[in-house]
Amino acid sequence: MENNASEFHPIIQVVNDCLKEYLEISAKGQESVVSQFPAKEVASKLHIKEWLQNGGLDASNVVGLVQTYLEHSQHMHHPKYIGHQVASHHLASGIADFIHGAINNPMAIYEMGPSAAVIERVMVNWMLSKVGWLPSGDIYDFDYDEAKGDGVFTHGGSMANLTALLAARAAVAPEAWDEGTPQDLVLIAPEVSHYSVSRAASIIGIGQRNIVSIAVDDQERMIPSALEKGIVDAKKSGKRIVAVIANACATTTGLYDPLYEIGLICKEHSVWYHIDGAHGASALISAKYKGFMKGVELADSMIWDTHKMLRTSTLAAAVLFKDTNSMINTFKQKGSYLFHEKENAGFDLMPYTIECTKAALATKLFWVLAAEGEKGMEKYLDHQYSIIQDFYQYFIDHDDYDCPYQPEANILCFRYNKGLESNAFQLALRNEIVKRGDYYITSAEFQEVRYLRFTVINERTSLSDIEELTNHISEIAPFLAGQFMELEK
Ligand SMILES: Cc1ncc(COP(=O)(O)O)c(C=O)c1O
């Protein structure tokens, strides 16, 4: 087959028809959320070896391949997909993926994708304007200005956290770039920060032993007085603090740290303040919920995933800086073929990212905004943040369940309290639910107790789905408890 548009057009049409059917069935909840089979079985059903040996894809044989692939996929639009903090995404973001797949513009250099590069700058400005770091308020403001914030899209929140912490290290210990990371650096983070933060600490040479863990309260929010003590003690022992990190919101609970109090402490002690807003920064687009982000104006950097509450497909995040120079100074490295003084049009983002080649990530967000407008985005967020309160109420009114806290964002932990209550049993219950395929939920430890957990990220999930989930659990739990007791004998 020739690698050209005329040859591929019929194949794409077939794939498109398969996807339409899949998405419609999925959204109606007419099949399993996910069917899990052993990996070798999936490989053999997909005939991967045969495809590799023979090639030969065409419009007649692509149907079987795509249908099998979809059959063994997680159905993100199924109303009973209430799992991870990964968007049950807006299909408009798929337009970005489709166009990128067709034209493949690695836009970190302007001349390799002017449209995508411009869209990224505008999307960054749009996000900065929500934080309050774009004084002009003009999202077409592309000029260098010391008073402005700045930012760049990365392949996900983990990469965004790493980028922000590199910027913080460059501010605190600029010598680290040439000489390696000095031994007197520490990072201050709550006990419950996302693991990408501690990974970043090792990657940038600070090391696990130099993470100062700050105590959290009974809702796992960072305790400001403990933070203040942590900063003072670190300074007294001659350490330089690279950054203080706060959760907005915490991964397990969806609860926001006291961002404002933390920010005041950081200002008082002149410490870089980084907010991990991978999930919860989206509250900034909501008049009703943006109060959760009060204190963001005191931060020096923040990350914000778009493939969570901004409804894009995976994987895209922005790392944002209050001061444009923080971003500019992060990577003190020259590659003359890329970073030359330019006479041609546009801006190159490559000097500001870990990655070299970069996909047109921000176009995903643009297409969702193009479909929904800001108002539509706000409506979605408001709906997810408010409907979870109904679900919470349902669980606390139900005799068989406990919830350890009232949710703020759209993440809820709950625990089946009838019969066996051990952590192992809750985990086994979650695994059995997922194995049966009718629901997709997660599980997490909170205050060392294991809970069932879900993220209500799917606009289609309603209270009746939650009622059905509890009926489902009432059926599964006794059966599972029997198995557990047999094992314990
Ligand atoms: C608070 C927080 N930070 C960072 C991340 C990592 O983001 P990503 O999966 O986009 O790398 C997550 C992921 O859930 C998160 O909850």
Detail the poorly predicted runs.
none
SS-based class: alpha/beta
Compute the number of structural domains: 3
Write down how many β-strands occur, each being a DSSP E stretch of 2 or more residues.
Answer: 11
- The CATH topology assignment of the largest domain is Aspartate Aminotransferase, domain 2
Output the helix-strand order: HHHHHHEHHEHEHEHEEEHHEEHEEH
CATH architecture of the largest domain: 3-Layer(aba) Sandwich
Reconstruct the topology from this structure.
Layout: H1 5-27, H2 39-45, H3 48-54, H4 62-71, H5 92-103, H6 114-131, E1 150-154, H7 157-172, H8 176-179, E2 185-190, H9 195-203, E3 211-214, H10 224-236, E4 240-247, H11 259-268, E5 273-276, E6 301-305, E7 317-321, H12 324-328, H13 362-397, E8 401-402, E9 411-416, H14 423-436, E10 442-446, E11 449-455, H15 463-488
Parallel strand pairs: 2-3, 2-4, 4-5, 5-6
Antiparallel strand pairs: 1-7, 6-7, 8-9, 9-11, 10-11
Helix pairs in contact: 1-4, 5-13, 6-13, 7-9, 14-15
Bound molecules: pyridoxal-5'-phosphate.
Pyridoxal-5'-phosphate binds next to helix 7.
